[in-house]
Amino acid sequence: PRLYHICMAPISVSTCHIPWDDLFALMLLIPSLPCSPANFLEEEGNRGLVAAVFGILFSSLCVLVLDTDPLPLITHSSQSTRGKYWKILALLYYPAFYYPLMACATVRHKASYLMGCLLSWCHCVVHIWQKVDCPQSPKIYRYYSTLSYIPIILCLVLLSLWYPALLIKSFTGQKETLDKEVTQIYGVTWIPLKLILSITTAMIAVYQVALLLLVAVIPTIQIIRAGMTKDIVVLLVQFGLVPSESPAVPGDMEKELRTVKYYLWSLEVCYICSLVLCCLLTCTMLLRTLVMHRSNLKALYQGAVLDVFYKAHILRPSRQAIVCWMSFASFQTAFACLGLLIQQVIFFICSVGFAGGFCCLEWCLMLGAFLLASSLPPRPFWLTLVVAVIVQNLAAHYQFLEQHPLRKELTNRRALYIATYLLFPINVLVGVLAGLWRMLISGLYNSIHFCQLDISLLNRGVETFDPGYHTYCHYLKIEVSQSHPVMKAFCLLLLQLARPEGPSGLRASNVEEGIQLMQHKQAPLSRARFKQSRARWWLAYTLLHNPSLTACRKTALCDPTANGTQLSTPEP
Amino acid sequence: PRLYHICMAPISVSTCHIPWDDLFALMLLIPSLPCSPANFLEEEGNRGLVAAVFGILFSSLCVLVLDTDPLPLITHSSQSTRGKYWKILALLYYPAFYYPLMACATVRHKASYLMGCLLSWCHCVVHIWQKVDCPQSPKIYRYYSTLSYIPIILCLVLLSLWYPALLIKSFTGQKETLDKEVTQIYGVTWIPLKLILSITTAMIAVYQVALLLLVAVIPTIQIIRAGMTKDIVVLLVQFGLVPSESPAVPGDMEKELRTVKYYLWSLEVCYICSLVLCCLLTCTMLLRTLVMHRSNLKALYQGAVLDVFYKAHILRPSRQAIVCWMSFASFQTAFACLGLLIQQVIFFICSVGFAGGFCCLEWCLMLGAFLLASSLPPRPFWLTLVVAVIVQNLAAHYQFLEQHPLRKELTNRRALYIATYLLFPINVLVGVLAGLWRMLISGLYNSIHFCQLDISLLNRGVETFDPGYHTYCHYLKIEVSQSHPVMKAFCLLLLQLARPEGPSGLRASNVEEGIQLMQHKQAPLSRARFKQSRARWWLAYTLLHNPSLTACRKTALCDPTANGTQLSTPEP
């Protein structure tokens, strides 16, 4: 790997048109990079390619965090006194190292595509060769290093297929037409690039964390299971951890040894099952983010700010919004990692408890009988609570509610008041159960939705105190303000006028169709005397559909009644 | 106490006009009670009196839960085979036992007030005499029983002052005028009775739980502290729990003994401090519930359903709403208990950790040095994260944001994209910290607001899955649909016509003032040709202020354009 980095790093830097002097000159990369062509986070870029590079970057970060040699150019850096500085430097080194893989696609020139082909093939071959040559490593688990490199290799394979395809396209003269872009903007499958990036890295994060959780625990349990002897079983029986009928004699522990091995096996199964469940849940939530985001964007484009935010927002860039936009993908990735960890802890405990009921029947029956007999209140108590709740529901339906055909009305008030008073102590006990349920459901809900940034874990009024939701809200502001379909359609029309070589008839129809999605119907203002009333009606109608406009109405418009008709008024 | 119950129970039952045969006939109380006068949960009742009786009831429940003899009429009931059934029966016995204290006030007759005086004095004297005569009991802590009876005695004292006042008022002829009721409805201090009840019982719940938490732990710690000997200190030193410079010789442990006693004392202080903090927080949240509830009611009376609920609701009674209304006060009380418990656990752990930094300096320095040296990442790492965040903020402000006088715009896009890419790995690490903060803040927020039913602990979209918030929403529906000020003012006007003996001029003015709060200004429809445009404008304006009406518009009105003017249209 050291040779690979020594060869590739100068190439990486030379692609960025920067003189290569020393390793420390890497720091110079950062101010010089803006000179190179890099509109890679614009919508018209090659989405899959950019997502693949971000995936490689995140996987490298995962390798870096656990690695003892963060910078491959310097061996045994962790043993030196400056080890921790190398690790921090590596955080900036890897983005610069993989940057050319992305930059080559944005230049839109045959030579750059060729360069991209060579680079991606080179990276890919080196990585695959390295892992085939030496698949085992002493770290955590012998195949961990190989398994954790799989996302990097897959992303590199994607790149080494993508670049040749781009090169062939550029030779055959197939250009990305404006039509395609219009379709991208208005198609059903349209999702902003930044979100695709964040979901890709979050999915890779789920893989990496799940892999780490798996290889850190399962081999250890298997080793313990294989190495379990009768002597240890005797100890466990003496401590009362394993039920035993016979006296604790080492020679006579066959059955108990089998029981212990069975326990360990079921622990292993529980761990894997809960991990699979967590991964599935996290991935489902991430996909749900995509759906939510699409509907949020649609609502904001139509001006329905209150459908998305609890309070009216003005959708324009700000310092905070830019910072949040920059860190959105990173936060999504980090939250996916943490969410998976929290879920695994909760679900593993739950699954062990649940499996305990089925697997370790003897042990649990003993415990269960003890619990039922001592701490839990007796069964008539539960029965009373259930009966009280049913009685209240029946009484409410048949006694306290008068069912008119049009509307229901309260009746028998005295009986209602007396029932309320008499059932007060029982309802307090029901309330304690409801409180426990409240605690459980809020904990479970928050742990499952932890990876979703588009949901606040706090209450409506204070939801922006949640750092995840705060980031998402500001990210949305930038996305909406910078990529409104009407604005894009307008820009495309301008581009079309500047480049009249294509088949303009087809394009124009598509663009028109796109614009019609956002267009509003202008009512004919036939008679002058209806003018003011109509203007007021339009204004009210507009404000009904765009409540966010009320905030900036007085400042933006001098005479609201006269200018009311000029506001955009989307049809329902 | 047995004699007291034997004497008082027949009196209680006789007040309810029911033949008294046997103890088991108590069950007969429930179907017969609706015959007795009992509109005590109506607004015009004596609020303080009703709240006091509910307070007595809840305190009795607290005593009952921990008591071994739940039914005072049957001694040693817990030792009998039917002990658990007695406890369940006691849940119904106590409400019936204290019922006459409330019923006497609702009859509104001199004889009933006199009866109320005698009953409350009797109860009060018996309880005070009982506790003065025998203040100590062997349960939990010797003064626990006495302290837990304080709310009962205070409430009884309130009742024994309230009834004579009512009696004197009835003799001097002072009646509650309609004016007062109108003032009650429209005054600033107006809060529904059910909420006053729930807050009173919740406050008593806070007292009872705090008392229990205090007497169950503090005397034990004090006993341990007093009984700490050098032999135990030697053991603690050998286990490494107490730092010691000298070798573990029992004779030479003066300093270590002092340290251990100091630790125990600081544990005690932490416990009391966190308990005080929890009580203050819970009480603040309960008071905040009152404020929130007032503003919610006001908003709902004005038709602004979406200011209170996330989705449009139709405010009419239903089975669920009645059940929730019945159990609202009980749930509020139970949630206050649970919330205090959860907070105490969290804050005690936090305060011990916090105090550890100050009190047990030696021990913590050792631990802290170990932690800093081994597990925590090195300081340059934190510095990098902080610098990265600051750099992003500065760059966003000075580089990526073009500050026009009217609106801000995004600029230097290339640099922005490159910075986003390069800072991706560092932002992932910042994201991990943000995720930890998200976890912490949501846990803390939910534990502090656990006792508030008017706040959902779940996200906006699924907030009604929270049993507490679900109960509150349905409770609000009943409150609003049954006690709208306009309806009340109308009923009062009808009552005024039926009872013309009072000074009607004063009353009418007050009622008018009350109605004006809700009145709308009718616009003059001067010219017929403007009619339709104006009607549409009114309709749009109305719907803008009452979004909930859109749901039932088509069904309720045949022709929306023609009837638009007849809807209530409050002025902004």
TrEMBL record, chains A, B:
The keyword Transport applies. Its main location: membrane. The gene is LOC101873340. Coiled coil: none annotated. It holds the Pfam family RBP_receptor. InterPro entries: STRA6-like (IPR026612). It comes from Melopsittacus undulatus. This is Receptor for retinol uptake STRA6. Keywords: Cell membrane, Membrane, Receptor, Retinol-binding, Transmembrane, Transmembrane helix, Transport, Vitamin A. It comes from the Eukaryota. The keyword ATP-binding does not apply. One of its GO terms (biological process) is vitamin A import into cell. It is found in: Cell membrane. One of its GO terms (molecular function) is retinol transmembrane transporter activity. It is a multi-pass membrane protein. One of its GO terms (cellular component) is plasma membrane.
